[in-house]
UniProtKB/TrEMBL annotation:
It comes from Tessaracoccus flavus. Residues 13-23 have a biased composition (Basic and acidic residues). It comes from the Bacteria. Belongs to the aldehyde dehydrogenase family. InterPro entries: Ald_DH/histidinol_DH (IPR016161), Ald_DH_C (IPR016163), Ald_DH_N (IPR016162), Aldehyde_DH_dom (IPR015590), ALDH_GabD1-like (IPR044148), GABD/Sad-like (IPR047110). GO terms for molecular function: aldehyde dehydrogenase [NAD(P)+] activity; succinate-semialdehyde dehydrogenase (NAD+) activity. CDD domains: ALDH_SSADH1_GabD1. This is NADP-dependent succinic semialdehyde dehydrogenase.
Amino acid sequence: MAITSINPATGELLREFPPHSPEDVRDRIEQAQRAFLKMKDTDFETRAAWMRKAADLMEADVDELGKTLTLEMGKTFEQARAEILKSAKVMRFYADRAAEFLAPEELDDPSSVGAKKAYTVYEPMGVILAVMPWNYPIWQVVRFAAPTLMAGNAALLKHASNVPQAALYLDEIFLRGGFPEGAFRSLLISSSAVEGVIRDRRVAAVTLTGSEPAGRSVAAIAGSEVKHSVLELGGSDPFIVMPTADLDEAASMAVKSRTINNGQACINAKRFIVHADVYDEFMERFNRQMADLKVGDPMNPGTDIGPLATSSGREDLIELVEDARSKGADIPVGGTVPDGPGWFYPPTVVTGVTPDMRLYAEEAFGPVAAVLQAADAAEAVRIANDTTFGLSSAVWTNSDDDVEFFTRSLDAGAVFVNGMSVSYPELPFGGVKDSGIGRELSAEGIRAFCNVKSVWRN
């Protein structure tokens, strides 16, 4: 069955590609293994030069590649360009910092372990498989690939099947930068073929960004092979607004945080928990700004919201909204599927959300905001934590007491105070509970696929 690239703004078939055969897959794994044997003996300076060259090439490709991302998954052209430039930034970040992050660490007092010298070294694991989603087709992959390659590993990519053009671009960019052939290879395969790749003896570990069911499956397979896994499985992030917040800034950022990438980001704010004392004031601003967003052609500079990436994704979103509507929720903004081609869905605000509605706890992957009201900080935390997810969170307040309370009390991998949840190369990224295990980015991200080896010498 062909792997297809479809324009979500029109439903038009752009291109189709034959999947890699089992023989192709075995050959690419072998290429990666051979490349790893070269990579592990290459110094940081050499790897860094290759990585910087690849970043330069990606930046030079920004307009053409940005158009491909927009046509293939529907994000606005402006946001596609921003994704590509951010990806080049993380490539340079690890080129500059890998040697520091993986430098040997000496024990201050080796005599405490009966040695003359004791230290820790970080060594590459081998061939690492990444199973990646479509919503950030370049960024999600590069934030894995940059630290993985800079650590001296080789990488395999099983990308989402609806972004094959992005996968094939990534198949070439690191080779163009100078990395050995096979150091990074894309596999055009179905999800059913992933298990065989994980179980291949030449694959040392796996990482997945995607749905919770997919993460459980991959982790179970990796665990049965005693292989390391890192999982980022999405979230239903709370955005809490307290009485001392700057409501103009909070509302503006709430709209951006809910709708960036057409509302299809794991760290989009999804549930808006607003203190009763400022609920009406905040909602007047929020509803007005959500209603003002322009939906349309993602290549048009005036468009704020493009289509959802897949027809099935839109159907899932419709079901969540209709479930809430049928159970008494109010929908002051949006909530109606537009006529015409493409998989568009309008910015939508759902208020009066209750625990019996699916939107209360499930992740809405699209521009739909679930709004809840809280009487105080304690209730806000209770609502925020009343989900199986725990990726990131945002709190809007100018009270130091609030900051201390929410930072301590929220079940999340990150807390952003008076700002929008964003992934930065400098900060660890990942969640708790069903949002995953392990961390990406920062020093944690490059050490995730290293063997931490202790050396004791007398």
